[in-house]
Design goal:
With 225 residues, the chain is an alpha+beta fold. The protein is built from three helices and twelve strands, in the order ααββββββαββββββ. Strands 1, 2, 3, 4, 5, 6, 7, 8, 9, 10, 11 and 12 form a twelve-stranded antiparallel sheet that branches. It is globular and about 50 Å long. A hairpin with a 2-residue loop joins strand 1 and strand 2. The chain has a single domain, classed as Lipoprotein localisation LolA/LolB/LppX (outer membrane lipoprotein receptor (LolB), chain A, Clam). The N terminus is likely disordered. The protein is 15% helix and 43% strand.
């Protein structure tokens, strides 16, 4: 991907980039490319994805409570999602969503064979802070990029060995769980998310790491029944 010419970067972004240049030795390196453009790279990459699977490793807090889980996640456009808890509280539970305001799911253990339909916002179908199955998808990231305010300058970081661009999104109004800001790490090779860090005000409340991402493995609607 070719860097964006400087004349296409808005004046505010240029001023911020110049100001940051003086302290770059003490900070993460600043890439001479606006976050809007980087978000656009993700949207372009996401357009080519019809379905995918991923492992999501999540750490979440809500007051004094914490939740650490590992999920297997599958998604197919436009509105099919399936999630299984493979580690942490609720291990063995899973749910499938085919659009609308309900999910079909099951609990783990002895109740794994009992299927039920419950509201998508039911506590049995959400994370500790109330995140729903659809928000765990890359489409959820795309929705936040489109609706939030994207910071004009991004930085480069290495996330689990993957060179990534960090894009900050201010969310007003807050999304479920009271999240007002997200920092998304996009892999510089695929432009897909490798980490999403969520904040409620100044407090970090959630981190999701996306690994083992398989793009277009051939999922069909039948995989979400």
């Amino acid at each position: 991907m070719q860097p964006t010419p400087m004349h296409r970067i808005n004046p505010h972004a240029r001023i911020v980039a110049i100001a940051l240049a003086g302290v770059v030795a003490a900070c993460l390196p600043v890439r001479a490319l606006g976050a809007d453009a980087l978000g656009g790279d993700f949207i372009t990459a996401w357009t080519a994805v019809d379905n995918y699977t991923a492992t999501i490793t999540a750490h979440e807090t809500n007051g004094k409570d914490t939740q650490d889980r590992v999920y297997h996640y599958a998604y197919k456009k436009p509105h099919f999602a399936k999630i299984d808890i493979i580690s942490g509280p609720g291990r063995g539970s899973g749910a499938a969503w085919t659009g609308g305001d309900h999910v079909k799911g099951h609990q783990g253990g002895l109740l794994s064979g009992v299927k039920m339909s419950i509201p998508i916002t039911d506590g049995r179908a959400t994370s500790l802070r109330g995140d729903t199955i659809d928000r765990a998808s890359f489409q959820g990231v795309a929705d936040d990029l489109k609706s939030g305010k994207v910071e004009p300058v991004t930085t480069i970081a290495t996330i689990d060995g993957v060179p990534s661009d960090l894009v900050t999104i201010d969310l007003v109004p807050a999304v479920p769980g009271g999240v007002t800001r997200e920092v998304i790490a996009f892999a510089r090779t695929t432009h897909l998310p490798v980490r999403r860090t969520s904040f409620a005000g100044d407090a970090q409340v959630k981190q999701e790491d996306f690994s083992e991402v398989k793009v277009n493995p051939g999922l069909t609607e039948a995989d979400f029944s």
